Amino acid sequence: MIPTKRARRVVAALAVPAILLTAAACGSDDGSSSSGPLAAVSGKPGEQPTIEFDEDAAAGKTSVEVLTEGDGAEVKQGDMLGMDVIGKTTGEQSDLVNTWMTQDGQPTTSDETPRPQLVTQAGVESALPEAITEPLIGTQVGSRVKVEGTAGELLGETADAVGLDKDQGMVWVFDINVAIDPTSSATGEQAPVEEGMPEVVAEGQEPATITIPDGDAPAELREQTLIEGDGAEVLAGHTLFVQYTGVNWEDGEKFDSSWDRDGGASFQIGAGQVISGWDETLVGKHVGDRVLMVLPPDKAYGEAGNASIPGNSTLVFVVDIIGVA
């Protein structure tokens, strides 16, 4: 399905990747009310749920129901969550957000490729408003959770921004697949760097210190696993959670680090969402790995460069893989 103008405004307002959007909802309740829930949800976790609205129900205060209880770690305030999500509003059958489907109505997963996840922080204003994810705190990874309420309570001022009636009912169904502590990093003894590779000191919750060796930058991509983790293997299509620091080989100056922000970084790996050197290097690694990469320009930003990165720059990254979904 082709996104409507409102759908695109929702994507911009909520910072939800466009691939997750199918179509926007419109209309509102007729004002009638009942004491029951807004909608019934059927289906097993891991499969796309079916949401059926009660036409006689009216939205009230935000409520949460654990439909299926998982047995994983407890979700904590600020955790980075990787989730399958459907969001719907009353008065319209199409989905506001749906990670199971692409914009043109095709499944987002296959036997070979993991499904892209919606990534947001629990109880923090991030990819989704705080009010939508705050009820997930205290639930467990592996759970399917339904959150109901009004667009006004769950979206706040965003409801006005995207043209939704604040009294309109809204239902979100979350399959919580992973919860990552945004302050976590790779742990274990770090291997000595190979000859000609930059030295790396990475301690605590601070950007890595990367010291460039004397001599010319390598013409080909070089990489080394400095700490070997024992977690899941990274597959193409996985949503990857990382901490990283990047410097320019030419002057050794840091141009970016996830540690300078409030949480780690996340993206779909092996899908062209990041520079090619990351896709090429990180697929096949494992959760818990610390990876050192030296990327020549053709594996980074090429002749054009990017923002503060000049064209034809060789870039050095230290990446801690802290989770996959």
From TrEMBL:
* Catalyzed reactions per annotation: [protein]-peptidylproline (omega=180) = [protein]-peptidylproline (omega=0)
Which residue intervals make up region (Disordered)?
Answer: 27-51
> In which domain of life is the source organism classified?
Bacteria
Q: Name one Pfam family in it.
A: FKBP_C
Give the enzyme's main class according to its UniProt record, as a single word. isomerase
Residue ranges under compositional bias (Low complexity)? 27-36
Which UniProt keyword terms apply here? Isomerase, Rotamase, Signal
Question: A single GO molecular function, which one?
Answer: isomerase activity
**Coiled-coil residues:** none
Q: Quote the EC number.
A: 5.2.1.8
Signal peptide annotation: 1-27
Q: Does the keyword Phosphoprotein apply?
A: no
InterPro entries linked to this entry? PPIase_dom_sf, PPIase_FKBP_dom
**What residues does the PPIase FKBP-type domain cover?**
237-325
| Statement: the UniProt record of this protein carries the keyword Isomerase | yes
Q: Which family is this protein grouped under?
A: Belongs to the FKBP-type PPIase family.
| PANTHER family in alphabetical order | 39 KDA FK506-BINDING NUCLEAR PROTEIN, FKBP-TYPE PEPTIDYL-PROLYL CIS-TRANS ISOMERASE FKPA
Protein name in the entry: peptidylprolyl isomerase
Organism of origin:
Streptomyces cheonanensis
